[in-house]
Amino acid sequence: MMSSKAQSSNNLAHARRTVQQLRIEASIERIKVSKASADLMNYCSEHARNDPLLMGIPASDNPFKDKKPCNIL
Amino acid sequence: MRSPRVPEMATQEVQPNETLTHLKTESDTLKTKLEEERAKLHDVELHQVAEKVDGLGQFIMKTRRTLKGHGNKVLCMDWCKDKRRIVSSSQDGKVIVWDAFTTNKEHAVTMPCTWVMACAYAPSGCAVACGGLDNKCSVYPLSLDKNENLAAKKKSVAMHTNYLSACSFTNSDMQILTSSGDGTCALWDVESGQLLQSFHGHAADVLCLDLAPSETGNTFVSGGCDKKANVWDMRSGQCIQSFETHESDINSVRYYPSGDAFASGSDDATCRLYDLRADREVAIYSKESIIFGVSSVDFSLSGRLLFGGYNDYTINVWDVLKGTRVSILFGHENRVSTLRVSPDGTAFCTGSWDHTLRVWA
């Protein structure tokens, strides 16, 4: 069992850490959701044509879609 | 000789409760301020901005390979950078390396513990890392000699005080990042086993982690049973951002390919998207009909699609921008426990409690 002094010093240390953490989080610079959304959309459209799962690539270009290999006797 | 008294300690002994109250007030004030600052910038919803984007057509994705060989639940998998090899780990203690093109097993290791919850491929392709109920993360160099006993060369790297939930090499074979049921994440030097940095802040088990794309800098995100997703600075060990909107455990986190956002999957049956620069949740991927937890999520290469593996045995495919589901995939006969898109984006692999892995394209 912790002594009540040790307990309260634990709580104090925890509270101090929480405040420090919140200070860091509160101080960061933020942008508007409209700007963030536009950037996400731009990234998607810039990279869409290179996204095989999105574009669907022909079987001949996708090693996982290849037909069963022929056995050469 | 008496040790010098720290001034704070003197205050503590005299009026501990007052200081605690003062801190609590400041903490509440800061939390309110955080919410206000975030709300000020919430001028629109992502799906509204995305209305002008073309909708996605029908997707035909099927199982192209089934990897059979595990004797129990598959818990984790990872792709090799060569886009064809896969490492997977299982409840029965086995770690298997597969050639996903041919479905051949190339290596197999039996761990000294059951529930190998985490496995990862080294960037070089020459080693794999794994761990679970043994509370450790061990690295096995992969030998070209199929007959060689891999277990003999095993290197114990990480030591936690509870189960290992996830592990990932950083951008080289030299460092590994781990998360654990002990509530912490840690960065380790593989060669020496030395702890380089530890990350404290989660209030419960940490279940998952993902490293930011290398261009974005030295950060990673973790998710835990405390319903929080935390973003960390790898050098300082500092938590720089924290998000708490999920209603249950966060089982999976994955960065959006640009590094400006990340997705999460939770036992609350939703996936969510958090934008790091807006510092808030910007999308929720959910349906009333989806009531089972999400175990794992990953993005397609462009970030337009989000794949989620669910505890109801299905995979749901989401339009990240519009927030709608574009496809539902069936095939597994038990929970989907792990899901990763291949490095070149041509396919994704799932692992399941039905003992198999499936490659979809």
TrEMBL record, chain A:
Show the PANTHER family listed in the entry: GUANINE NUCLEOTIDE-BINDING PROTEIN GAMMA SUBUNIT (PTHR13809)
Where the record annotates domain G protein gamma, the positions are: 8-73
InterPro entries of this UniProt entry?
G-protein_gamma, G-protein_gamma-like_dom, GGL_sf
Q: Which Pfam families match?
A: G-gamma
Protein name listed in UniProt: Guanine nucleotide-binding protein subunit gamma
Report the main location listed first in the record: membrane
Question: Where would you find this protein in the cell?
Answer: Cell membrane
Enumerate the UniProt keywords alphabetically.
Cell membrane, Lipoprotein, Membrane, Methylation, Prenylation, Transducer
Tell me what topology the record assigns in the membrane: Lipid-anchor
Q: Which family does it belong to?
A: Belongs to the G protein gamma family.
Q: Which GO terms describe its biological process?
A: G protein-coupled receptor signaling pathway
Source species, domain of life: Eukaryota
List the source organism: Gasterosteus aculeatus aculeatus
One of the record's GO molecular function terms: G-protein beta-subunit binding
Q: Which PROSITE patterns match?
A: G_PROTEIN_GAMMA
According to the record's subunit comment, the protein's assembly and interactions are:
G proteins are composed of 3 units; alpha, beta and gamma.
Q: Briefly, what is this protein's role?
A: Guanine nucleotide-binding proteins (G proteins) are involved as a modulator or transducer in various transmembrane signaling systems. The beta and gamma chains are required for the GTPase activity, for replacement of GDP by GTP, and for G protein-effector interaction.
Q: Name one GO cellular component term.
A: heterotrimeric G-protein complex
Q: Which CDD domains match?
A: GGL
Automatic annotation (TrEMBL), chain B:
**UniProt family annotation:** Belongs to the WD repeat G protein beta family.
Fetch the CDD domains from UniProt.
WD40
Q: GO:BP terms for this protein?
A: signal transduction
> Per UniProt, which keywords does this protein have?
Repeat, Transducer, WD repeat
What's this protein's name?
A: G protein subunit beta 5
Q: Does the keyword Lipid metabolism apply?
A: no
Mark the WD repeats by their residue spans: 67-108, 157-198, 199-242, 243-284, 294-328, 329-361
What the entry lists under PANTHER family is as follows: GUANINE NUCLEOTIDE-BINDING PROTEIN BETA G PROTEIN BETA
Q: How does it assemble?
A: May interact with RGS9; this interaction stabilizes both proteins and increases RGS9 GTPase-activating protein (GAP) activity, hence accelerating the deactivation of D(2) dopamine receptor-mediated signaling.
Q: Which residues form a coiled coil?
A: none
- Which InterPro entries does this entry report, sorted A to Z? G-protein_beta_1-5 (IPR016346), WD40/YVTN_repeat-like_dom_sf (IPR015943), WD40_G-protein_beta-like (IPR001632), WD40_PAC1 (IPR020472), WD40_repeat_CS (IPR019775), WD40_repeat_dom_sf (IPR036322), WD40_rpt (IPR001680)
SUPFAM superfamilies registered for this protein in UniProt: WD40 repeat-like
Q: Which domain of life is it from?
A: Eukaryota
